[in-house]
C-alpha cells in the first residue's frame, strides 16, 4: 500500500489537533505507521492551524509533498485555499462551508472571497469536492464544538482513509470527554451520512 | 470537541506514567522526551518555557508528583541550567529544556559547566525553530555544542528523541560532561508511534563531595580543566566513531550525508525518485565521526550534504575530506547556495529538487506548474495571522498607551503575546529584540529622541531578564515609561506559572513576588498599578508617567482573558457578553478600528458582537463615542 497523505486545515480553536489525533490513533490500532506534524503555539490566538497526517507502512517525512495530498480536510473554506498547492486532480477536498472572517477583513484591510470564488478556485485543482455545513450538523448532534468530528465522519465516508469506521469511532470514544461522547458519535454519523449522499 | 483532562480512554498522563515496556503509543515529540526523562531516571527537570520546547517540562510537571521528579519553571534559562547543574554535580540526573534563543541566555553557564563537568547525567535540550514559526530568529544551536565543546545528539523523530535522551544521559555520566540534545519544531511537534522502554531506577548515590580544583573555576583551575575537557572530547570522538547513532542506510554510488529531521526528507525524496543511494545519517552533531565520514566519502561520488539552516555538517565534512586527502565532489550550501536554502525549513520538495539538480534528472512532480496554479489561490486567501484574543487586557493597555501619548510615543516592545500589539489596528511596538530588552532599548532610544519613549514588557518576561535593565535605567537616569502588561501568567506558551503567580510548577503555593515591589527595589520612584479594563484611569496614569522626570513604571494588571474565562467556567459562572444598541450605533466602526477585538464582527454592514467570543470586558463600550455598547 502506498502512503495516504492528508492536510487538515482550520482556525485556532476549531479542534484540528484533536481530529488528527483521532486519525493517528486509529492508524496505530490498524498497525500502520503514522506521522502527524502540527504547527501550534500561536493557535490559541485565532491564527491559521494546519496539520499534516501521513499514514502508511513506513513514513518518514512529517510533512506532505506539494501536489501529493490524497485529501484536504478543511474546517473553514479559506483555510483549504491556503493549502491548495498540496492538491492535484486526484485530491479529495472535504470542507466545512462556514466562513470564519479574520478581523482584518472588518477593518477593511483585506477582502474575504465569496464561497463561489473559493470553490471555483478549488476546481482549478480538483473536481472531487465535498462541501458540508459541519457547524449545523454539529449543533444537530448536540454540541457546536463537535464540528471537527462531523468532518472526520465526512472524510471517512469518502473512503480516502485506509481505516475502518469502527476503529475511528473507538478512537473518538477514547479521546473525547465522557460527557460529550454521545454528541461526538452522533456528529461522526451525521457527517458520514451527509458526505455519503 | 476539545479536551485536556477527563477523557474516556487512558489519559496522556496514564499512558506516560504507566505505559509498559514494548507498548507503542502515539506521542508528541516533546511528550516522548518527557517519557524519556522518566525512563532515564531523571530526578530534576528545569526549564523556562518557550515554543517549541514547552511541552517537555509541562508534561513532566504533570507527571512530577507521581514520578517523584522535582521540576521547576525557573525565572530564565540561565537560572534553569544553573539549578540543573547544581543538582547534577550533587549526583542527580537532570535535564534542562529550552527553546533555542534560551540557550543564548544559558550559554554563560554552559561554557564553564563544560570545564567543571557534571556527575549525574545532565542533558541540555535545545528546541530550535527553523522558519521562525514562533521565534524572533532561526539560529542553529548545533554551533553552541562546538563553542562549548560538548557532545550534541540530533534525533529525527519522537522515538529517537526519547531514545537519544537516554543515550545522552549515559554519555553525560560516562564522560562527566553536559550533553546537548538538539530538537527542532518538526521533531518536538510531530506525533509518531513511540515504543516504550523500561524505567530505570534513580541513582541513590546523590551527595555533594567537595573538589575545589574541579568545581571552583578560578583561572588556575580553569586552565587545567580546559585541558581535561579537550581530553574528554577526544575520547568522546572514539565513542562517536563506533556509535550506532551514526548509520549508513541503503546502497548506491550517490552518497547523502544528513542528520536530524532532514533525514526524513532524504528518505522520502529517494522513494519518490525510486533512486538507489547510500545515506549516512549522523546522530552525533558533535563530535562528528571523522573516520566514518572518511570511509563514506571514499565509497561514494558525488556526496550531497542535506541539512537544515547552517552548513554545519558540510563545513566539517569538507575539512575532514581535506585532512584525509579524499577528493570527492561534496555538494551542499557552500558549494552552490542554489541547491538548498540556508534559511527556513527543509522539505521533501526542496531535497528532491536538489537531488534532481545534482543528477540532472527531471522532477517527478511538476512543482513549477503547481506554483503557477497556486498563485491565484494564494492571492485570494486573506491572511489569518494570530491576533490578541477577545477581551485581551493587552488590547486595552495598548489603546491607553496610544491615547495617553497622542500616538506619538516611540515604543520598544518585548517577547510575548503582546508583540501582536505591533500590528494594526493597535500598532504599538516599534522595536522588539529579545527577552527583557525593552527596558534597555527604551533607555537608549530616550537618549536620542524628543518624543516620549515607552517600553512594554509582560509579567513573565519582566522576571526573566528585565530587572538589570530597569536598575540601569534608574542608575543612569534614563527617562521613559515602562509599562508592565501583567496578565498574571505566561500566556504565550500555555499558561505556566511564574514568581508573580504565587504557585510553583509542582502546583504548590509559594511566596507571591510583586512586580511593584521589585520596581521600587530597583530604585524606581514612580510605580503605579492600574487595571487596563478601567481605560480612563489607565490613560490618566500613563499621562502622569509620561510627565514624570525619571523612569516611571506602570503595572497594567488584569488576568489573561482566557484564564479568566476558564475560571468562570470552572466556578459555573456565566460570561455576560456585551451587545450593540442598534438605535444608537452609527456604524462609525470606532470599536473595530481602535481595538480590533475578534468578538467585534460586521454582519451585512452592521457591527455586531459575537456573544460566544465576547469575554464581557466592556472595553469596547468605553471607546464607543455614542455609548452604543451595553451589557446584554
Provide structural commentary.
The complex is a heterodimer of chains A (197) and B (632). Chain A has 197 residues and is of the alpha/beta class. Chain A has a single domain, classed as Pyruvate-ferredoxin oxidoreductase, PFOR, domain III (Pyruvate-ferredoxin Oxidoreductase, domain 3), CATH 3.40.920.10. Chain A contains 8 helices and 6 strands. Chain A has helices spanning 16-29, 77-81, 103-106, 115-123, 134-141, 147-157, 165-175, 181-196, and strands at residues 4-11, 33-38, 48-56, 71-74, 92-96, 129-132. Chain A has a 6-stranded mixed beta sheet with strand order 2-3-1-4-5-6, with helices on both faces. In chain A, helix 5 crosses helix 8 (181-196). In chain A, 65% of the residues are buried. Helix content of chain B is 41%, strand content 16%. Chain B has 23 helices and 23 strands. In chain B, the strands form 6 sheets. In chain B, strands 3-2-4-5-7-6-12 form a 7-stranded mixed beta sheet, sandwiched between helices. In chain B, strands 9-11-10-13-14 form a 5-stranded mixed beta sheet, sandwiched between helices. Chain B has a 5-stranded parallel beta sheet with strand order 15-16-17-19-18, with helices on both faces. The model of chain B is unreliable at 1-8 (pLDDT under 50). In chain B, helix 13 (312-323) links the parallel strand 13 (303-306) and strand 14. Chain B has 4 domains: 12-205 and 213-242, 3-Layer(aba) Sandwich (Rossmann fold), CATH 3.40.50.970; 247-367, Rossmann fold (3-Layer(aba) Sandwich), CATH 3.40.50; 393-568, Rossmann fold, CATH 3.40.50.970; 574-631, Alpha-Beta Plaits. By secondary structure, chain B is of the alpha/beta class. In chain B, helix 2 packs parallel to helix 7 and helix 5 packs across helix 10 (219-242). Classes of the chains: A alpha/beta (197), B alpha/beta (632). Chains A and B meet through helix 1, strand 2, helix 2, helix 3 and helix 4 of A and strand 1, strand 8, helix 11, helix 14 and helix 15 of B. Strand 2 (33-38) of chain A pairs antiparallel with strand 8 (190-195) of chain B, so a sheet runs across the interface.
